[in-house]
Amino acid sequence: MRITLVGSRHFGVTTLNMLREHGVSVVRVVVADAEDRLAATAKAAGIDVAVQANPKLVVASEIAPDTDLIITAHSHARIGKDALAAAKFGGIGYHPSLLPRHRGKAAVEWTIKEGDPIAGGTIYHLADRMDAGAIAAQDWCFVRKGETARELWERALAPLGLKLLADVIDYAKVHKALPSKTQDEQFATSAPSLS
């Protein structure tokens, strides 16, 4: 399976490492910033790196030829329809909430702010609306009393994201398709910025 990874920062790097250990071929990494640690890690591993022309949008020309699947890992760019069409299975991303709850940025922070006793993560199909694509995989965890968003992310949600991504890739290898379950819009929340 040929993967184009779109991402940044520490979670982008840990996702890249997980993919490489998982027996898939990461053929290109797409970043918004050429100085990002994900770009440096990819270059050191001999993986082609593309820098987005527009940091808010990934276009088809930035996706590696013959890509089977686009994966986003800590990317705030929208993956354009043309880019999704360039990949055999389209694209998936990880969102650190039980979608459709806490769509948008700052999902972990909103989990804490809302006092949710349960958090979770979702692998979802990339779509036109942010975090609104069909669910490919989902799992949950408890939130500890007094836990900060960063503590919850590091303890539970980042590792959960890596596990769920690996599970979906394994499914796609066997079934030659991605699992897909429509989000239930009656439970959708879209949190405003915390700033």
Automatic annotation (TrEMBL):
<feature type="domain" description="Formyl transferase N-terminal">
    <location>
        <begin position="8"/>
        <end position="157"/>
    </location>
</feature>
<dbReference type="Pfam" id="PF00551">
    <property type="entry name" value="Formyl_trans_N"/>
</dbReference>
<dbReference type="InterPro" id="IPR002376">
    <property type="entry name" value="Formyl_transf_N"/>
</dbReference>
<dbReference type="InterPro" id="IPR036477">
    <property type="entry name" value="Formyl_transf_N_sf"/>
</dbReference>
<protein>
    <submittedName>
        <fullName>Methionyl-tRNA formyltransferase</fullName>
        <ecNumber>2.1.2.9</ecNumber>
    </submittedName>
</protein>
<dbReference type="GO" id="GO:0004479">
    <property type="term" value="F:methionyl-tRNA formyltransferase activity"/>
</dbReference>
<keyword id="KW-0808">Transferase</keyword>
